[in-house]
Design brief:
The protein is an alpha/beta fold. The protein has 10 helices and 14 strands. The two termini are 38 Å apart. The model has no long low-confidence stretch (mean pLDDT 95). The protein binds threonylcarbamoyladenylate (TXA) and magnesium ion (MG).
């Protein structure tokens, strides 16, 4: 059910889950101080408990109660990119539930750039744990209607319109003079380098971030990445629709999940996209990452 602000605030206060709008994708949110609520997030998504949740804050003071300490380097990133699509991972305080962090001693935090959600967290006065509001491994929702489709009528959705960015936040951790990037989003490697020029950037291959699992973001029908039309010739008895993106990487990010979900609901057998349609350019890395992980092997 689509709901308005006051109802969302009331539900969260009671410990219920509410799907919340952010600038990246919709999140399935619950207050971080109730174990039962945190458990329901995992159960609702059918998400394994080894996959940690991101904590969403409404102001910097809240981070002081979550991170063990806030370093100058982290502060620089917060000043530059918050509110916005950057999740910072750092050692956590003991009070932060092990459910949120999947027993890791670090926790990921971000301040989302969406007026309604910032107000919600600040009026609740408790940060919100929120993974993307989709079933585990499936495509993240960027519209309120997509969240409703994912959970039928079991979850209340705070209607905040369509997400402006459309792909998940960049996730990173600073360790000494190295920045480990666990997931790439709209905040780019170049922007991070500009903010912390003395640090070395490492793209983490380790699957510390299950968002880095190879199969993720999958639509409900097969999605094939091809190089030429003939790659699909074994599917000649089936019908496919081409995924269309934009010339701009930012617009492509915004429409990627929406188009994948809408095409999945057309009644065709599969979706395809020609890899040659996107340039080998750093601006496109985050979109390319999502395309690769959403794809079914041919
Ligand atoms: O844009 C976003 O980040 C969205 C919106 C709702 O804020 N959230 C999102 O959450 O994408 P989720 O749960 O789908 O992805 C969170 C990613 C996961 O891959 C998780 O493993 C990683 O963040 N993560 C969270 N805490 C971590 C930690 N302590 N160490 C490493 N990775 C962590
Ligand atoms: Mg997700």
């Amino acid at each position: 059910m689509l709901i308005k602000f006051e109802r969302a605030l009331d539900s969260l206060k009671k410990g219920n889950l509410v799907a919340i709008p952010t600038e990246t994708v919709y999140g399935l949110a619950g207050r971080i101080d109730l174990e039962l609520t945190l458990r329901r997030i995992f159960e609702t998504k059918k998400r394994p408990f080894f996959d940690p949740l991101i904590v969403h804050v409404g102001n910097i003071e809240q981070v002081e109660d979550i991170f063990f300490e806030i370093t100058n380097d982290q502060k620089k990133l917060m000043d530059k990119f918050w509110p916005g699509p950057l999740t910072i991972v750092a050692p956590k305080r003991r009070i932060i539930s092990d459910l949120i962090t999947a027993d890791l001693d670090t926790v990921g935090v971000r301040m989302p750039n969406h007026g309604l959600t910032l107000r919600l967290i600040n009026e609740l006065k408790v940060p919100l744990a929120a993974p993307s509001a989709n079933m585990f491994k499936k495509t993240s929702p960027t519209t309120p209607e997509h969240v409703l489709m994912n959970f039928k009528d079991s979850i209340e959705v705070l209607d905040g319109g369509n997400c402006k960015i459309g792909i998940e936040s960049t996730v990173l951790e600073i360790k000494k003079n190295k920045i480990h990037i666990y997931r790439l989003g709209q905040v780019s490697i170049e922007q991070i380098k500009e903010t912390l020029p003395d640090h070395k950037i490492v793209i983490s291959k380790k699957i510390k971030s299950p968002g880095a699992l190879e199969d993720h973001y999958q639509p409900s029908i097969p999605f094939y990445l091809i190089e030429k039309k003939s790659d699909l010739k074994h599917l000649k008895n089936k019908t496919g629709q081409e995924l269309i993106l934009d010339k701009s990487a930012a617009i492509s990010a915004r429409i990627l999940y929406k188009n994948l979900i809408d095409l999945s609901n057309l009644g065709v057998d599969y979706i395809y996209f020609n890899k040659k349609n996107i340039p080998d350019d750093p601006d496109w890395f985050a979109v390319k990452d999502r395309l690769l992980k959403a794809a079914t092997k041919i």
